[in-house]
Amino acid sequence: MSTSSFGLVNWLILAGYILAVSVVGSLFYRSKTSSREFFLGGRGMKAIPVAISLVAADMSAITYMGAPAWTFRHNMELVWCSWSYLLAAPIVIFLFMPFYSRFKFYTAYEYLERRFDLKTRLMGGAIFLLLRGSHVAIVIYAPSLVLSLITGMPLAGCVLIMGVCTTLYTTLGGMKAVIWTDVMQFTMLIGGLVMVGWLSVSHVPGGVHTVFQVASEAGRLHLFNFSTDLTQTTTFWATAIGGGFMALSTLGTDQAYLQRYFTTSSLRQGQWSILLDAIIIVPVSLVLYLAGPTLYTFYHFHPAALKDLPSSDAILPFFVVTELGGWFSGLVVGSIFAASMAVMSAGINSLTTVSTMDFYKRLIRPNCSDAETVLVGRTGTIAWGAIATMGALFAHRLGPIINAFNMINSFLGGPILGIFLLGMLTRRTRGTGAILGATAGLMSVSLLAWKSDQTLELLDLQGKHMGTLAPDPGEQIDNVLTRNGRALVLATRDGKVSGRWLELRYAPEILTYAFPDVTRATSESNPA
User: DSSP letter at 322?
Assistant: First the structure.
């Protein structure tokens, strides 16, 4: 991709946006603020801004870029993961929220100590730190990857720009800065999304009718998969039901979300914020996932235009920069940054809250002053921002970005959800039993993942079968790149990345590879 496509005007738009968000967030800085104000925004927020902030928490660049990339390569089956929030929201509204509203918690894990014991609280807090910390790292990586690909800047430099700017205003402004910049960034995100949707359809000969016809014939609009095969990752049961449990875990036990509820002025306002969040996510996610089939249709008529695509995860910004150009590039890349800065700011704020309240104030300095608590919170924000920024440099090892966090969440989200449900729905369970159950659940999921078959079916863009590829013992296949009639298989074994060549029947411009019934596309790329 030519770096000249992203010119001075686009740089000014992007830089101006990042500067504006940093300034707005920093305006909430108060030198003498309370812990209640810094961590919970004074508990005076209304439902609408909190709901928008909750939606922004789900619309990072992982979704903004990953959803179109997924449907460009596969189909619409994964959209049920987003729509499953409608199933989880009523449970959170009527079961979890009344429990939390009885007490003025700073973190959800305070409830675990009240219901079970200290070790359960610490375990819940530790799982959250691992889960959300990895999520924030991925959130930084995704837009930084885009900026690196379209400008030629080193990935490490892009990661630093993203991490430092977001950490700065989050440290200064606290939770109010997080919520109100979320509102600002959600507006930017929706503007970019609507523009891409409209312009991408207008670039397809025949418009919507052609998109529907071509994408349908290629299977890109396939929505329902009722297969009971456990090796398929996007069946209705896995995405709607499994996604529903992940959504329940996120909405009901994830501090990054709960902390937003805790900022509302009443139980009713908190419940309304959850309901509005679930409702808004449905149309927004639908538009995002439909962008993939639209782009697939465009490149169906212009396959040669894909020759410089550096990564299939970058298909959306690649289209914007190479086909739309002009100031649209700056706006869309800015909206990608907007999505991820919103999630990162909330993430490191919640990580700091758990570190401060569940560990520092509970174990180290139980009687520390309010001023010391705020100081520790600001210091923790800087520390977590630095940790997440460093972690972002290794996020590429998790595979396609749309599934990177889901992969982590599927291991850790279930056990913590189980602990909360045991506490709320039973009276006899004790802390030790809850921890043992969570450990058993984690071991079961790990065993299933270890035993899962990773055989890949090699296809071209039209679905023509080109062969089968199976990993060597102890190997994890990460990517497949094609060049000059051969495929370079990139794989990880014992933490080390290796590559081996595979001869193809012919040299396609696009090679797709698939786990059974799931197709993944990668562009022709120079492995060197």
Answer: I
